[in-house]
Amino acid sequence: MGASGRAGSLGGLLVTALNLLPIGQLDGGHIMFGLFGDKASVARRPIIAALALLAIIGTLRDTLAGAPPGIASPLLAIGQMIANLPLPGWSGWWIWIAMMVFLLRGHAPVLDEITGLDGKRKALGVAMLVVFILIFTPSPIVIEPLNLSQFVHWIV
pLDDT for 98-126, tens place per residue? Predict the structure, then answer.
C-alpha cells in the first residue's frame, strides 16, 4: 500500500473514532443512548473532562515548544514539566470540545420506550464501543518537520 493509501486509511479511522465519541448527536452518543437510555448523560462530563485534559497537555506542549530558552519563571518551569511528561495530548481537542458542547442537545423521544433492546442489538452496541476504544487515539494529528530525505522515503 502506498503513502496515499496509508494516509486514507488513517484518515478513515480518525473520522470513525471521532464519530463514535459517546456524546450528544454523534453516532457514539446515539449508541450510548440506545444502550443506557437517559443514564447515558452521566458519561458526558467525564468524557469532556478527559478531552479537556488532553487539550491542555497538547496546548502546553505546543505553546512551550516555541518559548525562548532563556526565560526563568516558576510558572514556565511548571508548565514545561507538565508538557514534558510522557502523556498524550493534542491542542485540536478544543475544537471538538466546542462542537460537543454544541451537539449536547437532548435526544428525540423514541417511538417505543417500553421495549428494550434485544441481545443482538445490545451486543452490536457494545461492539461499537469496543471499536471506539480500539481506534481512538489521544493525539490524532501530529505534524513534525521532515527533511527532504525523510519525505522522499515516506512517499516511496
Answer: 988 887 776 677 777 778 889 999 999 99
| CA proximity to 94, closest of 38, 55, 148 | 55
Question: Residue 97 to residues 34, 74, 102, 146: CA-CA distances in angstroms?
Answer: 22, 29, 9, 30
Q: How far apart are CA 81 and CA 74, in angstroms?
A: 10
DSSP assignment of 7-27 equals HHHHHHHHHHHHHT-SSTTSH
d(CA 47, CA 133) in angstroms, rounded, equals 13
CB atoms < 10 A from the CB of 64, how many? 15
Instruction: Please give the residue that has the higher pLDDT: either 20 or 111.
Output: 20
Our count of domains for the chain comes to 1
Longest dimension (CA), the chain: 66
Contacts with 87 (C-beta within 8 Å, 6 or more apart), sequence order:
57
User: What pTM does this model have?
Assistant: 0.74
Q: Are the C-beta atoms of 56 and 79 separated by less than 8 Å?
A: no
Residue 24 · residue 105 · CB < 8 Å: yes
Q: Which residue has the cell 452490536?
A: 124
